[in-house]
Write a structure and sequence with these properties.
- By secondary structure, the protein is of the alpha+beta class.
- Helix content is 27%, strand content 27%.
- β9 and β10 form a beta hairpin.
- The N and C termini lie far apart (72 Å).
């Protein structure tokens, strides 16, 4: 066990001092990746992405794009594979994982080609000239369906979609279940979501052919274990792959770990083009094709006694990692492996873990990764136990909590819970948070006929990940062959300059957590200075800085690990300065103290020397300072011994620190709309010693806001054909400040004995606890057993009102021959033009006329009297792209009616549909054109909000008929547009 003794008190730590970072960030002076200058001659890249979830690439025609002025290169799969290696996979499976599609696409948004040009505008235009032929394949979207070997197989060499399966057994779960009074289970389908940082991915890559080395600037936050993954993929040693981070990052929440495949792509692009290449991801790309949290199907069963005491748990977890299992996955499945029993004293556990691939985006780290999936199942189970046994959920939680005085506590699956008093924190939360009053409020609401529920959740928040947890996916024999992997390491360097100023540099790239402020507090306390005397450098450069593959900003490790390392580095310099000062002040080193910018004798404060003068002595008078006391620079590497590899029994202490969370809330549901209103939310945290109360409150509030989104609004939704349906913020609903109430935040501090400062993590906890707390409250309000996230008004209204019945006399929707999935568009209407039906008929069959009246047409080619091809540019909301249209006419009754059937394909999506046009002569020699259409679209365009799509379709058709009317020398009759928007189409 680690013998580190936390410091007991300090003057600056524990205060909410003003954040150093805010002066720049609040005045628009932040330096993000897209703000930084680039070398002259830097090129810009844009990525062509697959509109299909599963298809074979039969041809890619790039000649037109290559010949476009300003375009330097068009790169496809063979270019990338010839100059890189497949990305390593974290499990033993015969899978190649390339950062670009090779022969086959496996998810909507997968890169297919890269255009590199003198500007981003030219690169985007070049994408429109690339033609890709696909043969679509049936997709697999549901993780349960992925287990059916009779269905589509994503990776032929694997032979199935099951990538990995492991069974675990701790204690004697079989006996516990055999002797149990009751067996109670829940099945949970946890959805995909993402924390959607404000800033998307960004990369500037450069290749030096003389050194055979890459230099990459990117807003990558770690873990830096992926540095070796990227270097191997680029086929260079680690010391020839320099990775740099910008000073500021617009959030990460783990998601920016997913930038690493694009680092490889842009590195190869820079190598082949002979110039630096810059790529900034747009928001649509980020939603559709960056990483998301895993969706998981969990069946969790408990063996319980009659009083609600849980004797054993049995987990069956199916993890959907998307189309490729990219490092560090299946990290999300195993990060919580030591914490499967949560905050409860349960000694018997059985686990079955299966990892499957589906035709969805590859998954990665997302705030709280693994925690939301585990606790949603566990805490829904605890509530179900209370319901089925007729007990108070509060009593079930209390009687199962790890008892006071049991810490450090070893869980059944191996986690060493460092400190805590869960029962006391639980009781304080109920008292200080006003739980009794909340129950009175619930009783009053229900007496008035309102739907009001109370939710409860207890959870353990792990922080400072043990690198070895991911190897739990391997069998003990496989681990022995691979060699041990374990531990966590943090580094910090402190240097003194010739003026005695103090600089701090850490191997952790911040993403809004306030690194510079907190580190200045820690070091100022050590040296008796003010935080303003300390300068913290937050950029990371792997060619310059001390770092390890465990470095990075992830898993809530900053305060505990990075802050602790800075404290240790300061201690090293402080000890040397104290010995030098003791010699000059003629007192024992034990009598030296650092305070108020001076180093002085404790018993005689007037016997002192200024800190800056003594700190500078090694620069100005090195001959007067003993060599062993030189204090110019110190680097501390901190590695906690508690983080050991998985043992032969697969027990793993998957994280070093373990905070405790107890949440309760009251929610009211609108009986008519199904909307959920959070009436009160209380969250109690034990995150060890608190260094900056204001930032801890910000971390808790931010995690709570993300969790409200996950619980009530957010889901990455896919159609049956794999079309991504939530690719803009019109459909992927992210809560704003209006939808997020202010939680009541309570604290109970039990310092960790394993960290230098006694700190633990706090940034992810509510992402783990809040979704299930709100779900428990909604289930309580509705009196139901099963709820799935997100808890949208439509879902809840179905519980309140039952399934909606079709309206009487409702007009049936027209049947569609379009493919399943995607977004359906239907409508009808009419227009009047001045020309006769014969004249209009001729115009509709003339390629030149069609080219002049089709909106966005670049040209129409007539292949036969009834077969046309067109090249058009269309925009729907924020999505604009170039498309190839193939239109065929049938059922021609000249000049009365014609049926059009068409297919439209492009980089941003595809569409198909049919329409019938009838021409009727009018009394004044004109023509009335009546039409109805039935279409469906897929790909990125399908992700646009339904109203935007409907409006865009109406606008395009309106433009077509307006142009046709003008071409005939007339105009649409007055009242046409009113009928159009009044419900005719």
């Amino acid at each position: 066990m680690n013998s580190v003794t936390p410091i007991k008190s300090a003057s600056w730590c524990g205060q909410s001092v003003e954040r150093v970072e805010d002066a720049a960030l609040l005045t628009g002076r932040g330096r993000f990746v897209d703000d930084l200058g680039v070398r002259p001659g830097t090129l810009h890249a844009a990525i062509l992405r697959s509109p299909h979830a599963h298809a074979t690439i039969t041809a890619i025609r790039t000649d037109a794009a290559r010949q476009m002025p300003g375009v330097v290169a068009i790169l496809t799969g063979p270019d990338i594979t010839a100059n890189s290696a497949s990305l390593p996979v974290g499990v033993r499976a015969p899978i190649e994982c390339w950062p670009i599609a090779v022969d086959r696409v496996r998810y909507v948004g997968e890169p297919v080609a890269i255009a590199v040009a003198e500007s981003r505008y030219l690169a985007e235009d070049a994408l429109d000239l690339i033609e890709v032929d696909y043969e679509t394949l049936p997709p697999v979207i549901d993780p349960l369906a992925a287990l059916d070997n009779a269905g589509p197989i994503l990776h032929a060499a694997l032979g199935s979609n099951l990538v990995n399966e492991r069974h675990f057994r701790y204690g004697d779960p079989e006996q516990a279940f055999a002797q149990a009074a009751r067996k109670i289970s829940v099945t949970i389908r946890y959805p995909r979501n993402s924390c959607t940082p404000i800033e998307t991915y960004g990369i500037v890559a450069e290749y030096d052919p003389g050194e055979d080395a890459y230099d990459v600037l990117t807003n990558f936050m770690g873990p830096f274990s992926l540095h070796s993954v990227m270097a191997r993929a680029l086929k260079v040693p680690g010391n020839r792959f320099r990775l740099r981070t910008p000073p500021d990052s617009g959030g990460s929440f783990g998601v920016k770990q997913g930038v690493f495949p694009y680092v490889v792509l842009m590195g190869v692009a820079a190598r082949l083009c002979g110039r630096p290449v810059k790529w900034i991801e747009d928001r649509l790309e980020h939603l559709a094709a960056s990483v998301s949290a895993t969706n998981r199907v969990t069946t969790l069963e408990a063996a319980v006694d009659a009083g609600g005491r849980i004797k054993a748990l049995s987990y069956d977890q199916i993890e959907d990692v998307g189309a490729h299992i990219r490092a560090p996955e299946p990290a999300t499945l195993y990060r919580m492996h030591g914490n499967l029993t949560g905050a409860y004293d349960i000694r018997h556990v059985a686990v079955r873990n299966r990892v499957v691939v589906t035709n969805k985006t590859p998954t990665g780290l997302n705030r709280g990764f693994g925690g939301p999936q585990v606790y949603f199942a566990l805490e829904r189970l605890v509530q179900q136990i209370a319901i089925e046994l007729g007990l108070d959920p509060l009593d079930v939680i209390r009687k199962n909590l790890i008892p006071s005085g049991a810490f450090p506590y070893r869980t059944a699956s191996g986690a060493l819970l460092d400190s805590g008093d869960y029962v006391k924190a639980f009781d304080l939360a109920l008292a200080d948070g006003g739980f009794d009053e909340l129950r009175k409020r619930q009783a009053q609401a229900r007496a008035e006929g309102r739907l009001y529920g109370i939710g409860l959740t207890a959870a353990v928040e792990p922080s400072v990940s043990n690198m070895g947890y991911i190897t739990t996916v391997l069998t003990p024999e496989e681990r022995r062959k691979a060699g041990p992997k374990n531990g966590a390491q943090a580094t910090a360097t402190i240097s003194l300059d010739p003026l005695g100023s103090v600089s701090v540099h850490v191997a952790s790239a911040p993403a809004g957590q306030g690194h510079r402020t907190v580190l200045a507090q820690i070091v100022a306390d050590a040296f008796g200075l003010k935080p303003s005397d300390i300068r913290v450098v937050a950029e990371l450069d792997t060619a310059r800085d001390a770092w390890s593959i465990a470095s990075g900003n992830y898993s809530s490790r900053f305060a505990a690990a990075v802050g602790g390392a800075a404290h240790l580095a300061a201690g090293k310099i402080k000890a040397k300065l104290a010995r030098t000062a003791a010699a000059q002040l003629n007192v024992p080193a034990s009598e030296i103290e650092f305070a108020h910018g001076r180093i002085r004798a404790r018993g005689n404060p007037d016997n002192a020397i200024s800190f800056s003068r003594l700190a500078a002595a090694s620069h100005w008078s090195p001959g007067l300072v003993p060599e062993e006391n030189q204090a110019l620079r110190e680097t501390a590497f901190w590695t906690p011994p508690e983080l050991t590899p998985p043992n032969e029994q697969d027990e793993i202490n998957s994280s070093l620190c373990h905070g405790f969370i107890f949440d309760f809330c009251g929610v009211e549901i609108d009986r008519i709309t199904g909307a959920v209103r959070i009436d009160k939310y209380v969250t109690m945290h034990d995150c060890g010693r608190i260094l900056h109360p204001g930032m801890v409150e910000g971390q808790v509030t931010g995690g709570f806001a993300h969790a409200v989104g996950a619980a009530l609004y957010e889901e990455f939704a896919y159609g049956p054909d794999g079309a991504f349906l939530t690719g803009t913020f019109a459909d992927y609903l992210v809560p704003t400040a209006t939808e997020v109430p202010s939680p009541v935040i309570l604290h109970f501090e039990t310092p960790s004995p394993f960290t230098p400062l006694g700190t633990k993590g706090v940034g992810e906890g509510n992402c783990m606890s809040t979704p299930v707390c709100l779900a428990n409250a909604v289930a309580d309000a509705l009196g139901i057993d099963a709820v799935d996230l997100p808890l949208t008004p439509a879902k809840i209204a179905a519980f309140v009102h039952g399934e909606e019945k079709p309206q009487r006399h409702a007009k049936p929707a027209p049947a569609t021959s379009a493919k399943a999935g995607g977004r359906a568009l239907r409508g009808q209407g009419e227009a009047r033009v001045a020309a006769s039906p014969e004249a209009v008929w001729e115009m509709l069959l003339d390629a030149n006329t069609l080219a002049s009246i089709i909106p966005g047409a670049h040209g129409v080619q007539k292949l036969s009297d009834t077969h046309f091809k067109a090249d058009v540019t269309l925009g729907v909301g924020p999505v604009t792209g170039r498309y190839k249209a193939d239109i065929q006419l049938s059922d021609l009754v000249r000049p009365k009616s014609v049926t059009l059937a068409g297919v439209v394909t492009g980089a941003l999506g595809d569409g198909r549909g049919t329409g019938r046009i009838t021409l009727t002569p009018t009394d004044n020699g004109g023509t009335t054109l009546a039409y109805d259409y039935d279409a469906e679209i897929g790909g990125k365009v399908a992700s646009i909000g339904g109203r935007l799509l409907d409006g865009a379709a109406k606008m395009v058709i309106r433009q077509f008929f307006t142009a046709l009317a003008r071409k005939t020398g007339g105009a649409p009759k007055r009242g046409f547009f009113a009928r159009w928007f009044g419900g005719g189409a």
